[in-house]
Amino acid sequence: MNRRNCGAWVAVLVLAGCGMGQEEHQKLLNEALAEQKATMDAEMKKLQGAHSTELSKKQSEIEGRDSLIAGLEDEVRTLGGNLEEVRKNMGDELAAQAAAAEAAREELKASQQEILQLKRLREQAEAEKAQFAALTARFKSMIDAGRLEVVRRDGRMMLKLPDAILFPSGSKKLKKGGREALVEVAGVLKDAAADREFLVAGHTDNVPLKRGGRFRSNWELSTARATEVVKLLIDQGVAPESLAAAGYGQYDPIASNESAEEREKNRRLEIILLPKLEDVGI
């Protein structure tokens, strides 16, 4: 029974009470009120049940959404961390690649410089080989006569003349045969190697000079002889700015000085062909 019907029923009972006893009227009224209360309690319980079900459903939906949001947040954080790690790894890899590329460029540059240097040295060696052959050919008659040698020593090309044909013992004065040999040498040098510089070097053995002589040491004697040869070469037309004189005395031997033959090898005069600065890369 709804509220409207219950109200109508109570009104009927009130009106009807006018024709019945007090006790009966009260009984009917109590019954009507009890029925109305039971009906209202049932409806309230039903409404409460439906409301509880709806609340549970809403709560489940909310919890589901919260769980989904939490999962998405975790995934976002994970992706953010992974992205940062990827960026870092990519940065490290790119830096390593850049360093490797720079190292490769430096290595290539060094290799190119080395190749150029080797090419320059090879060209220099070929030029010196050709010049050595040309000088040997020009001095063939003197070489065959034993008055001169064209040699290479310590990486330098030189003309070597034995002391025996050049100077008397202990003297710087040229012998006639020595002067003639040097005149011939000067003619070749000024024509065949006009663009080179020459070091005229005197050498002796290790036998000390006699006391009372003009020179106090083999060093002084070798230097004086070298200077004397330079003067002759200049007189024969070799440019003075291309010549230098040096005395080594006994301190640059080519033999051991233990025998007369070895000491004779050490007594010599060398005309060394000096390399041009561009030939050595300076």
Structural account:
The protein is α+β, with helices and mostly antiparallel strands and 282 residues long. The protein contains 6 helices and 5 strands. The chain has a 5-stranded mixed beta sheet with strand order 1-2-5-3-4. Helix 4 packs across helix 5 (218-235). The model is unreliable at 9-18 and 277-282 (pLDDT under 50).
Give the uncertain stretches in residue-range form: 9-18, 277-282
**Sequence of strands across the biggest β-sheet:** 1-2-5-3-4
Helical fraction equals 55-70%
Main sheet summary: 5 strands, mixed
What is the arithmetic mean of pLDDT? 83
How would you describe the shape?
Answer: rod-shaped
**Terminus-to-terminus distance:** 124 Å
CA-based gyration radius? 62 Å
Number of strands: 5
Helix-strand topology string: HHHEEHEHEHE
- Structure class: alpha+beta
Number of helices: 6
Strand-helix topology:
Blueprint: H1 3-16, H2 22-138, H3 140-144, E1 149-153, E2 156-162, H4 176-192, E3 197-203, H5 218-235, E4 243-249, H6 260-266, E5 268-274
Parallel strand pairs: 3-4
Antiparallel strand pairs: 1-2, 2-5, 3-5
Please provide a brief summary of the model:
The chain is α+β, with helices and mostly antiparallel strands and 282 residues long. The chain is built from 6 helices and 5 strands; from the N terminus they run αααββαβαβαβ.
